[in-house]
Amino acid sequence: MVTARRYAGAVGKKVLILGAGFGGLELGTMLSEELGEEAEVTIIDRSDTFSFGFSKLDMMFRGASLESVSMPYSQAVKPGVTFLREEITGIDPESRSVTTSAGSHQADVLVIAMGADYDLDATPGLAEHGTEFYSFAGAEAAAGPIASFNSGHAVIGVCGAPFKCPPAPSECALMLSDDLTRRGVREQCEITFVMPLGTPVPPSPETSAALLSEFEDRGITFIGGRRPARIEPGKLTLDDQTELPCDLFLGVPKHRAPAVLIESGMTEEGFVPVDSATLKTKFEGVYAVGDCATAGVPKAGVFAEGAAKVVARQLIAEARGQEMTDPYDGRGSCYLEFGEDRIARVDIDFLSGPEKTGVFNAPSLELRAEKNEFGSSRKARWFGLRD
Ligand SMILES: Cc1cc2nc3c(=O)[nH]c(=O)nc-3n(C[C@H](O)[C@H](O)[C@H](O)COP(=O)(O)OP(=O)(O)OC[C@H]3O[C@@H](n4cnc5c(N)ncnc54)[C@H](O)[C@@H]3O)c2cc1C
Q1: How many angstroms is it from 117 CA to the middle of ligand 1?
Q2: The CATH number of 120-254 is which of 3.90.230.10, 3.40.190.10, 3.40.47.10, 3.50.50.60?
Q3: Is the C-beta atom of 335 inside 6 A of ligand 1?
Q4: Sequence ranges of the domains in the chain
Q5: Do 267 and 258 meet the contact criterion of CB atoms below 8 Å apart?
Q6: CA of 64 to the centre of ligand 1 (A)
Q7: Which residues contact 169 (CB under 8 A, 6 or more apart)?
Q8: What is the rounded CA–CA span in Å between residue 117 and residue 318?
Q9: 353 CA from centroid of ligand 1 (Å)
């Protein structure tokens, strides 16, 4: 464990963080808190704002605009941390050098926190005839077709695994059912949810059972172990050639690391392999955290943040001439929209014990307050903003 004592001497290491999502923001915040002006941290992101992944569901079903859920990086400036708005165009992990739309950067420590990207072309017809809801643009665009869907067959389909926030497509199915009920058209509509995993949340059988029971109560058909293979107007074909009628397709595209990371030669099977305990890649002085990495944990913001904390503790310990011995424990809690405004929580522990566990906390209105606090505490910590 690293002590809270402030490091007195010069840190002397330039830390370059690629990506200002959950992982990059937490890492920059911790280094600034502990090392202050001596931190020498630069964060590069192509965007000028950050938004929580779960805001996509608010945009689809609660009328939220992208602007209303966006936080500007200009508010995230902290001692010792510089934000650069640039597109990362090349990474050389051997020399820890990075090229961007604005020039080049050299680092002593490079932390890749670039999230996951989507491969729409992996599912023929998704780009032309479906609506993916995993990007902010996609979620914004899906709000219209959802609002005008009054009859027929809606399919929520996961086109590949791993994918971020495993409960999110289940949340989408329940929120769609609520929306149709609210508008008085639920009886004219069918909802099917297709995913390549056998159950909605495999590491938590209790969560899966609760979701399956909720689907049954609401007449949502669950097809596990199958993947959408082709989307055509009015029709969806699964990977076993089963055909389903489909008037509204809400899709989770196949995920992969951003192209620039794949081109850097750092990825294997689409993502950057890391040591689960330390988040180190095989390249000296290069770490990877969050959705772009394969760290043995689910792809979710809370795990990107947890991994970033472990990297931060190592860098702080190094700066103080200490040794960091606590490995990443792979623990984190995910909140699930269960419909009718209720929230459930699943407490995941993937790395600290002999077995992966996922403890289910039944849906309640009280847990909504806890989810709200999850968002507002990060908003305050990273951006100094109050709700
Ligand atoms: C519908 C939905 C609901 C979700 N709900 C939850 C939830 O309730 N709880 C939870 O914990 N997680 C949730 N998630 C998942 C969560 O949003 C992600 O897992 C999380 O954002 C990953 O954090 P990250 O730091 O790895 O990457 P990201 O947050 O994706 O950040 C990566 C950053 O890298 C930048 N970047 C990428 N490529 C480049 C480039 N070439 N140049 C410059 N910048 C670049 C991007 O602009 C981005 O800011 C949800 C996701 C979805 C889609």
Answers
A1: 9
A2: 3.50.50.60
A3: yes
A4: 15-116+257-327, 120-254
A5: no
A6: 18
A7: 156, 158, 193, 195, 200, 252
A8: 32
A9: 27
- Per-residue pLDDT, averaged over 216-236, amounts to 98
253 lines ligand 1 (CB under 6 A): no
Q: Is the CB of 84 under 6 A from ligand 1?
A: no
User: Dihedral sign, CA of 192, 172, 298, 41?
Assistant: positive
pTM summary value? 0.95
Q: What is the CATH number of domain 15-116+257-327?
A: 3.50.50.60
Cβ–ligand 1 distance for 300 under 6 Å, the answer yes
Closest residue CA from atom 30 of ligand 1: 115
Is beta strand 131-132 parallel, antiparallel or unpaired with respect to 103-106? unpaired
Q: Taking residues 123-136, what's their average pLDDT?
A: 95
Length of the chain as a residue count? 387
152-169, pLDDT tens digit by residue? 999 999 999 999 999 999
Cα-Cα-Cα-Cα dihedral of 167, 326, 293, 334, to 10°? 10
- Tell me what the mean pLDDT of segment 72-78 comes to: 95
Q: Do domains 15-116+257-327 and 120-254 have the same CATH topology?
A: yes
Q: Is 70 in the pocket of ligand 1 (CB under 6 A)?
A: no
Compute the radius of gyration of the chain from its Cα atoms: 21
Q: Which atom of ligand 1 is nearest to the CA of 57?
A: 1
Quick: pLDDT tens for 29-42: 999 999 998 889 99
- Centre of ligand 1 to C-alpha 243, Å, is 33
